[in-house]
Write a structure and sequence with these properties.
The chain is an alpha/beta fold and 242 residues long. The protein is elongated and about 80 Å long. It contains seven helices and eight strands; from the N terminus they run ααβββαβαβαββαβα. A hairpin with a 2-residue loop joins strand 1 and strand 2. The protein has an eight-stranded mixed β-sheet, sandwiched between helices. The chain folds into two domains: 36 residues; 202 residues, Alpha/Beta hydrolase fold, catalytic domain (Rossmann fold, 3-Layer(aba) Sandwich), CATH 3.40.50.
Length: 242
């Protein structure tokens, strides 16, 4: 009887060791996966170096305009992209008078904190109009948040992404590059769509070429300038309807 109990215990120990080994292998594979990410280019890091109206608070980078409006955009970065890569784009948006709050996601993947905007909104009760925006997977998670919390945001802004969930397209702005066919193929709505001719998927940020993404025929500066113009027109239209 005693030897049988010892044998059973050994089996459990072996089984437990196998489970721990599998978990260790999976954890290692995950860490390798998330450690291979797109770094922000120098032009993006230079925006942070200006230290002009840019503050960092925990996992947030806040870009405040000199003459702010009552509108703030929460921005979710694309998957496996260093958040700072979006600073040139957000810096241009804040020059239109809109505060931008860049969220640094766990493991640089918005899927791990899709509801981050809820905590952001709670920290700034003085803001009257909230918009949530995102690029690629960040756009999908921003869309999910907007769909799940329609009363907390005034609108949704997608870049290189399409509406994910049940959110009205009349309150959304979808911007994509004409070379980003995978996004175009999933757009089954017609309102507030801005196609940037010659643009691709990656150039909403400044992190270099992205695997599987065709080279753009316009510069990142031009793609971002057209993006900012589309956002400014969308917000102006939303204001006129209030």
């Amino acid at each position: 009887m005693k030897s049988k109990q010892i044998s059973q215990r050994k089996k459990w120990l072996v089984a437990g060791g196998i489970v721990l080994l599998i978990l260790a292998i999976l954890a290692g594979a995950f860490l390798r996966y998330v450690s291979d990410y797109y770094r922000a280019e120098d032009v993006a890091l230079e925006v942070m170096a200006q230290d002009n109206g840019i503050t960092v608070r925990d996992n947030l980078t806040i870009l405040s305009p000199t003459y702010p409006t009552d509108t703030t955009i929460i921005f979710y970065p694309g998957a496996k992209v260093e958040a700072e890569a979006y600073l040139p784009l957000l810096d241009q948006i804040r020059q239109t008078g809109v505060t931008c709050i860049l969220v640094h996601m766990p493991f640089r993947m918005a899927i791990f904190d899709a509801n981050a905007a809820e905590e952001v909104i709670a920290q700034f009760p003085e803001v009257q109009h909230w918009y949530i925006a995102g690029h690629s997977m960040g756009g999908a998670m921003a869309s999910k948040f907007a769909s799940d919390h329609p009363d907390q945001v005034d609108g949704l802004i997608l870049m290189g992404a399409y509406i994910y969930g049940d959110y009205p397209d009349e309150k959304s702005l979808t911007i994509y590059g004409s070379l980003n066919q995978s996004v175009e193929d999933h757009i089954d709505y017609t309102e507030n769509i801005a196609e940037i001719e010659g643009g691709n998927h990656a150039q909403f940020g400044n992190y270099g070429p992205q695997k599987g993404d065709p080279p753009a025929t316009i510069s990142a500066q031009e793609q971002q300038a057209q993006t900012v113009a589309a956002i400014e027109a969308f917000l102006r239209s939303a204001d006129s309807q209030d």
